Automatic annotation (TrEMBL):
GO BP terms in the entry: carbohydrate catabolic process
UniProt superkingdom: Eukaryota
Protein family per UniProt: Belongs to the cutinase family.
Organism of origin: Synchytrium endobioticum
Listed name of the protein: Cutinase
Disulfide cross-links: 84-158, 218-225
Function: Catalyzes the hydrolysis of complex carboxylic polyesters found in the cell wall of plants. Degrades cutin, a macromolecule that forms the structure of the plant cuticle.
Amino acid sequence: MTTDLLSDKFEPIQTRAREHHRATLSKHTAATVPNMSRAYTLSKFGIALLVMLAFPSLGSASPIRLMKRAGGAVRNDAVEGGACKALMLIHARGTTEMSNMGMGVGIPFAAALEKLTADVGIQGVNDYDASVAGAITGGSKTGAEFMAKTAADVMQKCPKTKVILSGYSQGGQVLHLATDMMSPKVADKITAVVLFGDAKGKTTPVPRIPADKVLSMCNAGDNICENPMLPMITMAHLTYGTGVDEAAAFVKRKAGI
């Protein structure tokens, strides 16, 4: 899984997913919300509508076929067991992303970490459908429970493993919920947290995690993290895959690898 992510086949897959998402979003917003550039106050219904428009389906193909086409985007190193690693990344994907990692940010971030060290495990958040409804209501509770429990399980089985948490978009909401569920003992042992386009907002503290352990990446013009009360998707929200090397460098510093 480490070498094929760095092949020339990966970039076209990621680009096609991003371009399809952009094209579908443009079609829906142009037809349904022609004056989105105007400043106006949104009701709760309006916010929900914009979120629903902002996260279109990535196509009619089944999730299983899309996972296979994505080149093995499911990562379950923690739940499948095996030898303890120096690092374990637990990542929560964004709304409507396929597999348990998502191709836009999760898999590129995993690849960036695997370039730094081969001694890293990768775990996507399961029990999490990454649905629009979940984003509207503040993030998946079952996904958060999975992230919190998996972190605790890894620490119990592998006391020397340094646990890294990350989340993209709604995955950021999931991460906030997860750390709030953790015992102080587990939260204290989290080595680093990385947020990409956090739907909770770039200035929202991560519960139980010191600020110096957190990197919250929020691109200029990304309304999702700059202004969560006006959750309109812009292209700035769809390009975090280009910032994964910076995120990996932050993890390297915090983990001391």
